Amino acid sequence: MYLKSIELSGFKSFGKKTELVFQSRISSIVGPNGSGKSNVAEAFRFVLGEQSMKSMRSKKGEDLIWGGSPGLARANRAGVKVTFDNSTRLLDIDFKEVVVERIVYRDGQNEYLLNGTVVRLKDVIRLLAGANIGGSGYQIISQGEADRILNASPKERREMVEDALGLKLYQHKKAESERKLLESGVNIDKTKSLRREIAPHLSFLRTQVEKIEKAREMKEELAVKLNDYLARENAWITQEDSRLKDEAHVHESESKKLSVRLAELRTVAGAGKHGTSKSSELHEKLQGKEARLVEVRREGEDLQRELGRAEGALEANTVTVEQIVAVPHVRQFARELDSTISDIEHSDDIATVRAALAHIRNRIKSFVEGLSGAAPVTSHEAKQQVEELTVALAKKKHEQEVLTGEIDVMRKEIARIREASFAAERDVIEHEATLREAQGKLNNANVARAGLKSLRERFEEEVREGVALVGAALTGWERSDIPQGALSEDRSEQEKRRKQIERLKIKIEESGLGNGDAVVKEFSQTKERDEFLARELIDLETSASKLKDIIAELEKTIDEKFKDGLKHINEALKGFFVKLFGGGEAKLTIEQPRRKISRLNLDIGDEDEEEDFVDEEEELYAGLSISVSLPRKKVKGLEILSGGERALTSIALIFSMSQVNPPPFLVLDETDAALDEANSKRYADMIMELGSKSQLIVITHNRATMAAAGELYGVTMSQDGVSKLLSVKLEEAERVAK
Ligand code: ATP
Fold first, then answer.
1. 33 lines ligand 1 (CB under 6 A)
2. Is the pTM value of this prediction over 0.85?
């Protein structure tokens, strides 16, 4: 005995709280029409989680609530509580007694409670399903619905049988797995589509990153080349600058020396030229001396002539003009003139020529005067005169010699000065050339230094650019030793290096990727995401494949259990059928699996055709058909059965199903209504038999059925429309039932 009691409060006609306590395996509920018996059966449906209002003869939740009568106000909620004895752990919950309660409010809200705790509907359904309670509802056969199993479609019928066989749990599991598989499928598609979406971006980023890697390699190469190049360049510029500085210094000091020397030489050269003070002074002095020499000579000649005359007077004592002017004297006079003239002839100096001419004029004048002024002198006087004149003449001659010597010295000095000037002039020219050369070299050195300065500027610019391009990697050039012979190599080698570097810079610039950190980061993130998705895909596919296995396994279990169960049901059915009909046969047969074409695959044709198509999941579904053959009747099939025969067949079927996998309890609402007396008796026997396996709540008007029950409840309806319940004896029951 699992079912202990059911309590109805405000449910349909049970306006007041009413409790049915079940103490027998078979309880019968009796009462007149409209007293509320079926409401009790519906109370079972309701509390077990029925969602179909129709099956509880209602349209909405509110219809289930006591509607009120003049004697009793309407209720705000309808509640049904069913109590199970769970000492054998029929329900998979760790309580000795389990109370399942459902309440519906006027706004249609439902509440489910399990031992007083609010739970979800699915928790209730799951718990009951584990004990083979609920499901397709074959265990609660409503009034007039006994042949529902006959009217059902093969598919529905199969579901009812599966339910009866306790396969619902497997079906639930299968449905759950299928739902998960569907979800996995959706997720697989989603993940694949995400990967497809990422793929082009990822491949773009991969290419970019490859380029960045290449650019980085190029940068590394550039750093190495630049460090080498800059180290060489720095060393070369430094060395070259120092060399040029020294060179410029040398040329500068040489130029200075040459300038000083040149000034000196120019002075020397200038001294030898006319117009310079020293030269003029010398020439002036020379002229003075030469004029004096002419004068001294003339005076000497005068003295000579006087001496001649004096010597003549001495000889003749008395001398006439004719005597004075002796022939030798005239000859002497002529010789003097001739000598002076020949002197002039050899002189370039105009002053000398003039002086000689003046001397000639004076000599002629004094000769003429000598001829007229001569006076006779005594011999003594004459003698004295001769002596005096001789002395005077000697003096003059001496003076003349001194002068001649001095003039000679002076002329030589003038010649020497001229010569020195000429030499100096030559030196000046030479020095000027040397100076020009030195200055040229100095200039060249300075120009080269200026060029070097711009090279240094370019070098610094290259360093800045290099730092901007390769960053910290560009410090090596300051430390790195330059290779041997680097400073003496041809500059074209360094130029080649510079060009190589420029080409490399252009390549890096053309790659146009900057430092690319952001791209590399994005690539690694996108790659990570793609890898994550790939792993996710593998997981999903693995779980999908596992789910498929589980589904296949479940299908196999369901199939096996179903086939096995069906075999037993058919065996039981055979017995019940013979018992009820006294012969004949009824059998459940699995239909040929129907292959339905997926709607997705055939999205063509007109709309009418589409009605034949069902969803893919219905593929290969095999329903259950019933074959019936009655004794003594040739015609077969459900269609030919009378109302009573249909009821008997249904009862046989329901009882067979209940026997194979007995549910803890069964509610049968006037299932026997259509039976004649003889069949009612058979039905009562079967109830007894069934009662040994399942607890039964039988609503009936039949005495035979009532007699089979261990306890009887009478339902009556009072004047105010409230159903009431009372325990009755069989004798009473018959009365109550009417
Ligand atoms: P029968 O023997 O003819 O099958 P029954 O005993 O099974 O009758 P029910 O069908 O259970 O009777 O009861 C129907 C009665 O319940 C009706 O009188 C109906 O008015 C009453 N009823 C149904 N719903 C409500 C409600 N919400 N409030 C009050 N009374 C209700």
1. yes
2. no
Q: Which residues of 381-412 are buried (b: 16+ CB within 10 A; e: fewer)?
A: ebeebbeebeebbeebeebbeebeebbeebee
The conformation of residue 14, written as its DSSP 8-state character, comes to B
A 10 A CB-CB count for 67 gives 15
Can you tell me whether residue 700 is helix, strand or coil? coil
And the tokens for 236? 């070369």
**How many Å apart are CA 468 and CA 463, to the nearest integer?**
9
Q: What is the DSSP string of 318-380?
A: S--HHHHS-HHHHHHHHHHHHHHHHHHHT---HHHHHHHHHHHHHHHHHHHHHHHH-----HH
pLDDT in tens, 619-641: 567 888 888 888 877 667 777 78
Place of tokens 């063509």: 604
Strands 110-114 and 117-119: antiparallel
pLDDT tens per residue, range 363-408: 888 877 766 554 445 667 677 878 888 888 899 899 899 999 999 9
Report the atom number in ligand 1 closest to the C-alpha of 699. 7
Residue 36 beta carbon below 6 angstroms from any ligand 1 atom:
yes
Q: Does 85 score more than 50 pLDDT?
A: yes
67 CB under 6 A from ligand 1?
Answer: yes
Position 180 scores a pLDDT of 92
Q: Is 115 in the pocket of ligand 1 (CB under 6 A)?
A: no
- AA identity, residue 304: Q
Q: Round to whole Å and give the CA distance between 25 and 622.
A: 36
Distance 248 CA to ligand 1 centre (A): 131
